[in-house]
Amino acid sequence: MLGSTLEEKENRVTEMILTTLKPTTLISGKVIALFAIGLLQVAIFTAPIVIGYLFFREQINIPDFDLSALVFEPVPMIIGFLILLGGFALFTTTLVAIGAVMPTAKEAGNFMGVMIALIFVPFYAVSLIFSNPQALIVQVFTYFPFSAPVTAMIRNGLGSLSLLEAAILYIGAVLMFSLAVRLFQYGSISYTSKVNNKTALSNGRRDPGRKPDTLTPAAPSRPAIACPA
Predict the structure, then answer these.
(1) Residues 15-46: tens digit of each pLDDT
(2) Is the pTM higher than 0.85?
(3) Contacts of 88 (CB under 8 A, 6+ apart)
(4) What gap in Å lies between CA 163 and CA 156, rounded to an integer?
(5) Could you give the CA distance from residue 182 to residue 22 in angstroms, rounded to a whole number?
C-alpha cells in the first residue's frame, strides 16, 4: 500500500485518477482490493493442505485429526473476522497517510519498521494476556489503536474481550481513514517536500461544496476630469 501510493504519486498518476474519483472512493478501493488479495493468498496457501488431507491423506501419511472436539461459536468467529478487517483497514489507511505526506519512497520507508514493530509488540505480553487480561499493560495494548488488532484477536479467542473494547478498534480505524483521505487529497500533488499536516487538516475542515462568497459589484468609477492648468 505504501509503495503503490508513492509510485502513483511520483508518476503523476494520482492527479489523473482524482479528476474522476473522490479520494474517499480511491482509498476505499485500495483497501478492499488489498484485503481481497490477502484472502486470495491465504486460500492459495491453504488449498494444497486441504486437498492433500481430503484426497491424498493415505498416500502422504497425514495423521487423522479428530475435528469433532472443535466447538464452533458463530459470534466470536464473526467478531474475530471484524477485528481482522478493522485492524487491516487501520494499518493500510495509515500507510496511505504516510505515503501522502512523504515526498519520496526513501523517506517513507523509515516508517515501515515502526509499523511492523507495532504489530508484534503485543506478542511480548502474550503470557500476561493469557493469564491476566485485566492487567494494565494488556488494557493499554487493547485501547492503543495500533496494538489493538493483535491484542483484541487474542483476547477474543480466549473469551475475555467485550464488545465495547472491540468497538474501540473501529473508532480508531474510522478516524485514521478520515485523516488519510485529507492528507491524500492535499499530499498527492506535493512532490518535493513534506505535506504540512496543519494546513491540510485546516483546509479539509472547509466545506468543499460551498460556493465562493458573492462579491458586491463595485460602483462604477467616475471619469477623472482634467483640471486646466
Answers:
(1) 777 778 887 888 888 888 888 998 899 999 99
(2) no
(3) 31, 34, 35, 38, 149
(4) 10
(5) 11
